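Final report, results section. Input specification for complex C-07:
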Amino acid sequence: EAQVTQNPRYLITVTGKKLTVTCSQNMNHEYMSWYRQDPGLGLRQIYYSMNVEVTDKGDVPEGYKVSRKEKRNFPLILESPSPNQTSLYFCASSTRDSSYGYTFGSGTRLTVV
Amino acid sequence: GEDVEQSLFLSVREGDSSVINCTYTDSSSTYLYWYKQEPGAGLQLLTYIFSNMDMKQDQRLTVLLNKKDKHLSLRIADTQTGDSAIYFCAESYTGNQFYFGTGTSLTVIP
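Structure output:
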């Protein structure tokens, strides 16, 4: 089944403890992206990647890192999480020309206390 | 990013039609999309329209695009309780930059 898989689905952590949210897609998509969803703000893009070893900042990159060492994986790293990073995170992927839109993962609900 | 605006809430009675509206600012948008998010789930692509089209129909869904006014709408005919969800409008141009609206929460009253 074609899908984007994120892990974990739920995570509660403490301020300053490094964490990684994994994302993997099995559709051979070139393009991958991370979004955060907050009430009343819709989806805001954190980082995106056009292909292996090519990443760029989205609208809200502060406090996040990403890497794209393989085509299928695009982990999101929070080196020192803070409470304002409590949010619902989505990974998504698409073909290069985006004509069929994104395929989204099921989301990761992160709480930083 | 570009501005994509939607109203936050919409309530309709079961069996009525729902119309969800969206305005966008980027006149170079190539594709416009509607996504559905059910509680606790990711976003699912419902339908999309190319910017050179005015209308697209897909079963109970009708998408209307007014390029002059930069207005996109999604009409759901015979709305059912299973249609209750958040609906996101999104735009993109080639280059994979997607811009999403804030989402419209549709409540269907039985």
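Chain A touches chain B at residues 4, 31, 33, 35, 40-45, 48, 50, 59, 90, 92, 94, 96-107 (CB under 8 Å). Chain A has a mean pLDDT of 93. This concludes the modelling results for the funded period.
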